[in-house]
Design goal:
This protein has a single domain, classed as 3-Layer(aba) Sandwich (Rossmann fold). The strands form two sheets. A five-stranded parallel sheet has the order 2-3-1-4-7, with helices on both faces. The protein has a two-stranded antiparallel sheet with strand order 5-6. A hairpin with a 5-residue loop joins strand 5 and strand 6. The chain is an alpha/beta fold. The chain is built from eight helices and seven strands. Helix 1 crosses helix 8 and helix 4 runs parallel beside helix 5. The chain binds BIS(adenosine)-5'-pentaphosphate (AP5) and magnesium ion. The site of magnesium ion (MG) has 4 residues, from helix 1. The site of magnesium ion has 4 residues, from helix 1.
Length: about 200
Amino acid sequence: MNLILLGAPGAGKGSQAVKLKEHYGIPHISTGDAFRSNISKGTEIGLYAKSFIDKGLLVPDDVVVGIVKARLEEADCANGFILDGFPRTVPQAEALDKITAVDCIIDFKVDRETVLKRLTGRRSCSCGGTFHVSKLKSEYCPVCGKKLYIRADDKPEVIEERLRVYKETTAPVAEYYREQGKLFEVDANLDIDKVYDIIVAKLG
Ligand code: AP5
Ligand code: MG
């Protein structure tokens, strides 16, 4: 199953991807996580991407497409994958269509107030886990035990810019897939387990 998770910052794409990856036994490919891993290792791509990410802007298409193309060629993607945060421009979607076929795009529909509450309270882990501060008992990851951190782009002014970029540049990607008849909208304001149940009921 080749799956795409599309939606605004804080819509819950990463949270669902972690659960769906377990359920379907296919890899979770997050372009945001790939950039953050490169940033923490201090690679050239990481340094380049950081200059965009820290401002809430998108990393240029050619860089992102190159990373995704290489990742999809790896053996563990042979039976399917979950793309989280890619594509987020129409040219990226067109590039993906040339690389492989996609089965379903889950479009996470979420209110602005929900996004602001979620992102200002988010705690992240290098293992890929994302949590909300209201549900945590300590500052350590409940899954792997590492210390949780606050993402550099989860500052209020950067969140605003990410939402603006989403509306202007990423929202049209939903229309691109709607025209292909592959778009499935989910109410992402609901709680994590409810959203998960709706997605699994749709995908089977
Ligand atoms: P990326 O890492 O993809 O960030 P994003 O799209 O802004 O999305 P987030 O990760 O912030 O939100 P999410 O939907 O995963 O929500 P989460 O599950 O964590 O990208 C970061 C940056 O990298 C971009 O700004 C860009 O610069 C660059 N980039 C990445 N991909 C790119 C591309 N393709 N092209 C160009 N540039 C690219 O949940 C958020 C919080 O809410 C958590 O605390 C969670 O516990 C909580 N939560 C989640 N779901 C629920 C729920 N249903 N109910 C209650 N709480 C919930
Ligand atoms: Mg995410």
